[in-house]
């Protein structure tokens, strides 16, 4: 995972997950994060679904959307969910 390697190199404590469901599970276990890098194209639950679910759970962490797509519609959809 490119982002994890870059964060490690910068000395930033981080936790990488394989899919959106893992992110829900980790928040349900009472762990919290200052910032979440959210990949739009995660398996099981994509980044937009995941962000929407986290917001509905009351998670207020900063969520930064990450995507290989530059389609305006997808960017707007990501931003609208929070």
From TrEMBL:
Q: Which residues carry this modification: 4-aspartylphosphate?
A: 39
Q: Name one GO molecular function term.
A: kinase activity
Q: Which Pfam families match?
A: Response_reg
Q: Entry's SUPFAM superfamilies?
A: CheY-like (SSF52172)
List the InterPro entries hit by this protein, alphabetically: CheY-like_superfamily (IPR011006), Sig_transdc_resp-reg_receiver (IPR001789), ST_Response_Regulator (IPR052048)
Q: List the keywords (alphabetical).
A: Kinase, Phosphoprotein, Transferase
Check the record and name the CDD domains matching this protein: REC_hyHK_CKI1_RcsC-like
Determine the domain of life of the protein's source.
Eukaryota
Its GO biological process terms?
phosphorelay signal transduction system
Domain Response regulatory, residue spans:
1-82
Q: What is this protein called?
A: Putative histidine kinase response regulator and transcription factor RR-A-type family
Species name for this entry?
Lupinus albus
């Amino acid at each position: 995972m490119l982002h994890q390697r870059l964060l490690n190199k910068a000395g930033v404590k981080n936790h990488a997950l394989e899919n959106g469901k893992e992110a829900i599970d980790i928040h349900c276990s009472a762990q919290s994060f200052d910032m979440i890098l959210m990949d739009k194209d995660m398996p099981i639950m994509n980044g937009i679904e995941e962000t929407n679910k986290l917001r509905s759970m009351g998670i207020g962490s900063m969520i930064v959307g990450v995507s290989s797509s530059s389609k305006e519609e997808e960017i707007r959809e990501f931003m609208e969910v929070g």
